[in-house]
Design goal:
alpha+beta; Phosphatase 2c, domain 1; five-stranded antiparallel β-sheet
Length: 334
């Protein structure tokens, strides 16, 4: 696309391209490469003026070429508008990412005799995974990890509301199972189309090490004992995800954490991580996650990073397919 300077100085005015009027077509003398020609200047402008298409009246072939230039310039305008729209969307998503992170804990719990580790990474700018540590009465601590169906903005919006509801129900209900039932009622009543939430909900009594756990369709907690053995906690009693059947009854199990034990809660972004050959990280036939936890030395932080390194190495070369969240905790020491 060529942009020409107008010979007629009276046509120069603010808002013009190269001094040429961009508001309407006009007959003028234009020069290109020192050759003066008579032609029609057609404004090429969308949101912003881009230039003038030369249609030379003295040469039909040149006129046809100029018309082609006009079409190309029109496409360039459309492309520019599309790029601007993408830039605005990118800015909005970046802001949404920053806002969503504010719904997550900004620090780990500081409880004497216990250690904690948490990691969150969305597959896109925003996601539907969620975790929280909720201080409760009598020195207890609520620990929640949820996964909203789907990914992206819609899942993130559901997660934003759910995070507040979860804190409220943990503080008002007496147990994880009662809190899960209340959350399920609220989500079913909201009637959000095709949205459900898997949830691991537990309450830790730090003074005794007693841990109450309830699962609403979520992958089972894995508990590594100090001797290296690993057990799945509450797997037989997993209830339906929240938001499917209103009157679902959620079972609750209880375990005792001893020094050296590490509890591991995770979203399916860990187990469903894929290799470049589309192999899943963790399956019934190959329990890579359990084996990784079993082989890891140290407390919650060491176990957490060991899992993340294993997942990263396994999935290297494959884009992250799902939101990934991991929480590890337990009594410090051996």
């Amino acid at each position: 696309m060529e942009i020409f300077e107008c010979e007629n100085s009276s046509m120069r005015q603010p808002g013009s391209v190269g001094g040429c009027i961009t508001g309407a077509a006009g007959l003028s003398r234009m020069s290109s490469g020192g050759v003066l020609a008579t032609g029609i200047g057609l404004p090429i402008a969308g949101r912003h003026a881009l230039g003038i298409a030369r249609l030379d009246l003295m040469d039909g072939r040149r006129g046809r070429a100029g018309a082609a230039e006009a079409v190309i310039a029109g496409r360039d305008v459309s492309l520019q508008e599309t790029l601007l729209a993408h830039e605005r969307l990118a800015r909005d998503l970046k802001l949404a990412e920053q806002v969503q992170h504010q719904f997550l804990p900004q620090s780990l719990p500081a409880i004497a005799g216990y250690a904690f580790f948490a990691y969150y990474h969305a597959a896109h700018e925003v996601g539907g995974d969620y975790y929280d540590f909720v201080p409760l009465l009598n020195g207890r601590l609520g620990i929640a990890l949820g996964d909203v169906s789907g990914k992206g903005v819609a899942a993130a919006l559901v997660m934003a509301k759910f995070s507040g509801d979860t804190r409220l129900k943990l503080q008002s209900e007496g147990s994880p199972s009662a809190a899960a039932a209340a959350l399920n009622h609220a989500l079913c009543d909201a009637a959000i189309d095709e949205r459900y939430i898997t949830l691991s909900l537990s309450i830790l009594e730090a003074s005794t090490g007693r841990l109450q756990l309830c699962s609403a369709g979520h992958p089972p907690m894995l508990l590594r004992r100090a001797d290296g053995t690993v057990e799945a906690v509450g797997e037989p009693g997993r209830g339906l995800p929240l938001g499917i059947v209103r009157d679902t009854v959620y079972e609750q199990v209880e375990v005792l954490l001893r020094p050296g034990d590490v509890a591991v809660v995770y979203s399916d972004g860990v187990t469903d991580a894929r290799s470049p050959t589309e192999t899943l990280f963790d399956t019934r036939e190959n329990r890579r996650l359990l084996q990784c936890i079993q082989a890891a030395d140290g407390g919650p932080e060491a176990v957490g990073w060991a899992i993340l390194r294993e997942v990263d190495e396994f999935s290297r070369g494959h884009a992250q397919a799902d939101d990934l969240t991991l929480v590890c905790f337990g009594p410090a020491g051996q």
